[in-house]
Design brief:
By secondary structure, this protein is an alpha+beta fold. It has helices at 22-32, 41-48, 93-107, 122-130; strands spanning 3-7, 10-16, 53-60, 63-73, 76-84, 112-118, 134-143, 147-155. Strands 1-2-3-4-5-6-8-7 form an eight-stranded mixed β-sheet.
Length: 171
Amino acid sequence: MGVLFYNPAMAFTLRSYEPHDFAALHKLDQACFPAGISYSKTTLRYFLTLASADCVVAVEGIHVAGFVLSEENPPLAHIITLDVDERQRRNGVGTALLQRLESNLSARGVRSVLLETAIDNEAAVAFWQRHGYRIEATLKRYYLGRLDAYEMRKLLLPPASKTDKRPGEKN
């Protein structure tokens, strides 16, 4: 069951990837990234079928508004892609997807999340930085053998346990 999110511009639901989503996810990835950076059907299907994969999908009505895909090997995870439909950007979809993914990862013991983003994609770099990701390194000619990328990382806190108490809190 998904969770409904609402803002004045749109309402959307977050849920786990389902195989019938594949064509829409591939189409969205092709629209979000140029040829050579977007994933082929074979590569996207490979990542989605990894036992270590987690994919959260944002759905508005019957349309996929965005998705985030990661692979994990706790305590480390790698965000493979975060794609948001151009018409849905700046409506909280990317933030909601990322927050759900990070919550999922944290609950499974992930403490460090890595990703790569093109250094010339200023909107993406700013998005990741707003969400606590820090530039760790520059990867020369990472995309298409010519575009540099930033490797970015965020440390996740473990989920709060029910036995954790705030200072001064009573049982």
